Amino acid sequence: MDTLKAFFQKYPAISIVIAFQLFRFVLLPFMGLMPQDAYYHFYGENLSLSYFDHPGMIGYILRGFTLVFGKTVFVVKCADFIVTSLTIFSFYKLASCFLSKQKLQRAILLITSTLFISILSFNSTPDVPLLLFWTLSILFLYRAIFEEKKWFWIYGGIAMGLAFNSKYTALLLQFGLIAFILFSNKYRKLIISPWLWFGIVISVAITFPVWWWNYQHDFASFLFQSSNRTGSISGFNINPKYFFGAIGHQLFLLLPVLFCVFIVFTFKYIKRALTKFKLPSSKTLFLLAFFIPTFVGFFSLTPVYWVKLNWLMPSYITGIILAGMFINKKLLKAQLITSIVFHFLISLQVLFYLVPIKSDDTWVGWENLAIETKKLQNQYPNTFVFSDDKYKTSAVLNFYMENKVYAQNIIGKHALHFDYLGDDLSMLNGKNAIFIDSDTRFKTRNKKGNTIPELNQYFSKVTELKPIIVSKKGKEIRKFWIFYCENYTTNP
Predict the structure, then answer these.
(1) Which of 275-279, 289-293, 382-386 has the weakest average pLDDT?
(2) CA angle (77 as vertex; 86, 132 as ends), nearest 5
(3) Whose CA is closest to 416, among 123, 48, 121?
(4) Dihedral angle at the C-alpha atoms of 280, 286, 292, 295, nearest 10 degrees?
(5) Is residue 178's pLDDT more than 70?
(6) Distance separating alpha carbons of residues 421 and 30, to the nearest angstrom
(7) Closest CA to 462 of 481, 446, 482, 484
């Protein structure tokens, strides 16, 4: 005990970081499977060069972990936790290139205390590997540029390519790199360096599987991620809810102190550049090159477009290093206290589910649904199961059940990557099915009372069964409508 106390006294910052990570790790076994966990695990079980809605890095990681350690919810969560812990360590190495020992400690405490680190540690998303390879990319590029270590251009290119293979947002890495070189008087000469372009060529080569998959599938993923969003933005319909919603998300992910520090230094640097035509030092400019395009760029869209809470996450890496330059001890203390309070409340929610979540984006009830669905299949033999909520119910049931579970492509709707599995749905002609529909606004135990029109088009007879009600500690928390559908026809 004395040795542990002495360690805490000698290394207070490291001790707090370890405490936060231990808290997250201890909470992992109590976290149920999220639909996102199941969907990206589904990626890994259906290996492909890329996927319809995202590149496949998170799927490959989950496939690797579950192959080695077994297919369990805890292993999936551990994969996210371990990769995110590597991101924190990589951030520490990156921040040490810019900050003094005292400011470095503040920066590592800032990033570890945020809720976005907790989200990445608990929930499988493409952002989990993106943040790791984003951080490594900037670290390697720093060493290539400021330490003039030419081999790091190659390492940087590999990391940028792997970041793109995690999520398309990583394109902003190359954009930030070129922007820094063009705006930097000292390093502008690098624009003609063969090492710079060699690194970029390597990054593009690493992304070849994603491009090849898109080429084979009429660029479906690129079109999905760009055309719909471009159309919404071009409509330019101002909606204050989008803007204030984005602010709320960022206040939650970063916590108020850190978010306000972001706003202050962003305003400071932009004002200085626009009014005094003065750019910061080369190292600060380097950090801003990977912060401004993502943070300010996406934030500028919020008045006219619903920017998802995770889109700004890559900017946090260099943003927190910049924040470490400005934040004082008093503000850091406020950040840590706020973080402890939030994490305590989160632990209560995870352990006791105090506040019902009126959404399918929850970790409770899924395993019970799978158990009840298996019972239904025993009651109604030779049936297949499907759902119609893009991916959530289908992905989760695929994780828990041995038999294949289908999505809304059964009734002619687009179903994300379920459309690209090569399933021959005609093999299901004449079969009966169990259709599951989640009642996210669960208020009564009543049946739905009316069938879904598409079901009547694809099945000769549809009968609503008794809903599945999921309870937790004696309290009814979730409800699923169940329909027994007879004689499926692939093309009605």
Answers:
(1) 275-279
(2) 25
(3) 48
(4) -130
(5) yes
(6) 32
(7) 484
- The distance of Cα 12 from the centroid of its chain, to the nearest Å, equals 30
User: How far, in Å, are 418, 449, 478, 486 from residue 452 at the CA level?
Assistant: 21, 10, 20, 14
CB 159 within 8 A of CB 140: yes
Determine the straight-line distance between the first and last CA of the chain, rounded to whole angstroms. Answer: 72
Residue 253 and residue 338: Cα distance in Å, rounded? Answer: 12
Instruction: Report the alpha-carbon distance of residue 327 to residue 314 in Å, rounded.
Output: 20
Separation between Cα atoms, residue 254 and residue 99, nearest integer Å: 20
For residue 128, what are the CA distances in angstroms to 80, 83, 95, 322? 7, 7, 19, 22
Q: What is the DSSP letter of 156?
A: H
Residues 116 and 96: their CA atoms lie apart, in Å, by 21
CA distance 169 to 149: 27
pTM above 0.90, yes or no: yes
Mean pLDDT of 198-224: 97
Q: Which residues contact 421 (CB under 8 A, 6 or more apart)?
A: 46
Give which of 322, 341, 360 is closest to 115, Cα–Cα.
341
pLDDT at 107 over 90: yes
